[in-house]
Amino acid sequence: MDIKDIIKPENKVYGKTPLLTDAVMHYCPGCTHGVVHKIIAEVIEEMGIQDKTIGISPVGCAVLAYNYIDIDWEQSAHGRAPALATATKRLNPEKYVFTYQGDGDLASIGCGEVMHACNRGENIVIIFINNAIYGMTGGQMAPTTLLGQVTATTPYGRRADLNGYPMKITEIVAQLEGTCYVTRQSAQNPAAVRKAKKAIRKAFENSMMNKGTSFVEIVSTCNSGWKLTPVKANKWMEENMFPFYQLGDIKDR
Amino acid sequence: MAEKILMKGNEAIAYGAIRCGCDGYFGYPITPQSEVMETLMVEKPWETTGMVVLQAESETSSINMLYGGACTGKKVMTSSSSPGISLMCEGLTYLAGAELPCLVVNVMRGGPGLGTIQPSQSDYFQCVKGGGHGDYHMIILAPASAQDMYDFVDEAFNLAFKYRNPAMILSDGVIGQMMEKVEMRPMKPRRTTEELLAECGSWALTGKTPDRKRNLITSLALEPHIMEAHNQKLQAKYREIEANEVRYSTYKAEDAEHLIVAYGSVYRICESVVDMAREKGIKVGILRPITLYPYPEKELDALVPQMKSILTVEMSAGQMVEDVRRIANGRVPVNFYGRFGGSIPSPEEILEALENYIK
């Protein structure tokens, strides 16, 4: 049988969404950013909202997210994406507006902006990638770094007396009246990817229902920063991150 | 006869915004400019023109809200006073770098630090020369009356959109708090979606449709040759602004032998100084820069040869005077008189300083 006999539309079982561009991703092999980008692109395609969606990229590894998903994008100052999203959405209520932020961007320097956007109940989607480390700047401690975890700025492991405690910002925003949907997901295997996609779709749908802010945390790996192979990084995440950052819906109303 | 209403300069900013088709105001309370947002909240323009008004959690947030709004081509503005502007400097350099039009009003108070709530002009360096990092400029308009406050909102928006650049109204606590008659100009409606698309569709985030590539607003370019080219584009724009957008006025400068250079509320005080000096037989005139960036370089340069001396008066320890000295370039003595930290100079003390310098 010739290969041409196999490559036929009726034999196609999976295809890349056209909303994911052909740009070569700059992410490290094994990184989950690419998977989450794909999920978001698929949700936008399936909902048919490419012309109504505005993405906001952070400072950090995902700063160049705008190269990969074929929608209009704004690139934010470090941590300020929820402030940008607030005005973008209020001035353009017919648009789906989402931010895509890492743990340093959202939980550290942007802690104030995310709290108040969530507290005002802005009708936006916040995608929060938590890999417990600063990836782009070379593996420094993040607010979500676990106790004992070795990073470039906690070379002997994070100590509570020196560095404070890992921060469950997702539980904190769940307590705010303005949030309508707060969930913690992961994307390390097909089952997890399916769940994460369902959560992200729900979050996008919420943003047209005037219910408030939808917040989706994706617990992720940073195999470069953690200095582990992708497979070992997934294992480390399951053994160390999941017990502390427990998966599942925290709030849904 | 157009309607004239007695109001504070800060209130004039609010009415100027509602009536010139502003789409959104995002601000944080700080004395001496809080009446801007308070007036907007009383007027509820979201029920009439559809203008959005939002109290942000900080100046950091409000300037970034401007970024988020400006990305979509909307006419967005904020107002604050000196310490708040310091917090906004991060956002301002991003707005300038990403070439986003917006309006920031700074009703200056005395510094440094928390300083005082009394008027000052000591943010000249910060606002005219930069404030944030990188090579950038904002277009700066300096009002001297409540009417200017009203009129400059529309004017600043026009300039901001013409050049895709942040514009600032650099006012002070005197102009903000002072009550004067203000003429309400004819109401301008907010732009329709079609009008916005026609004006900003090539760059604004209006949603990626099949007929165009995705639009991207960013100030990032990791490759140095791309960033240098972007900077060259910005510099070319600034040269164009400098060539076309200088605004200034003069007062009794035609036959003057001595020139006062002053802007904002100090300009108003100096009008009295000139009248008092002329009664004493001293031929004094004023050059008032209305745009502080672009600065009236040629206009000042042309006046220098007829002068025996120049006196720059500011509510600062001497900031704009550096530009006046640069332009005078040693041809005549450039003297300085300043009060600062919230103190306002009286006409008498300015006249005394002038007389001491020229005797």
Q: What does this 3D model show about the protein?
A:
The complex is a heterodimer of chains A (253) and B (359). Helices cover 37% and strands 17% of the residues of chain A. With 253 residues, chain A is an alpha/beta fold. Chain A has a single domain (3-252), classed as Rossmann fold. Chain A has a seven-stranded mixed sheet, with helices on both faces. In chain A, helix 2 crosses helix 8 (190-206) and helix 4 (103-109) crosses helix 5. Chain A is globular. Chain B folds into two domains: 4-193, 3-Layer(aba) Sandwich (Rossmann fold); 249-358, Rossmann fold (3-Layer(aba) Sandwich). In chain B, the strands form three sheets. Chain B has a seven-stranded mixed sheet with strand order 3-2-4-5-7-6-13, with helices on both faces. In chain B, strands 10-12-11-14-15 form a five-stranded mixed sheet, with helices on both faces. In chain B, strands 1-8 form a two-stranded antiparallel ribbon. In chain B, strand 4 (76-80), helix 4 (82-97) and strand 5 (102-108) form a beta-alpha-beta unit. The relative contact order of chain B is 0.13. The mean pLDDT of chain B is 97. The chains are: A alpha/beta (253), B alpha/beta (359). At the A-B interface, strand 1, strand 2, helix 3 and helix 5 of A face helix 3, helix 4 and strand 9 of B. Strand 2 of chain A pairs parallel with strand 9 (216-217) of chain B, so a sheet runs across the interface.
Q: How many separate helices of chain A?
A: 10
Low-confidence stretches of chain A: none
- Biggest pleated-sheet summary of chain A: 7 strands, mixed
Report the major sheet of chain B. 7 strands, mixed
At the fold tier of CATH, the topology name of chain A is Rossmann fold
Report how far apart the termini of chain A are.
54 Å
The arrangement of helices and strands of chain B along the chain is EHEHEHEHEHEHEHEHEHEEHEEHEHEH
Classification by helices and strands of chain A: alpha/beta
Tell me the overall shape of chain A: globular
Assembly annotation:
heterodimer
* Order of neighbouring strands in the sheet with most strands of chain B: 3-2-4-5-7-6-13
Spatial extent as radius of gyration of chain B: 21 Å
- The share of residues in extended strands of chain B comes to 15-25%
CATH fold-type name of the largest domain in chain B: Rossmann fold
Strand content of chain A: 15-25%
- Helix and strand sequence of chain A: HHEEHEHHEHHEHEHHE
In CATH terms, the superfamily of the largest domain in chain B is Thiamin diphosphate (ThDP)-binding fold, Pyr/PP domains
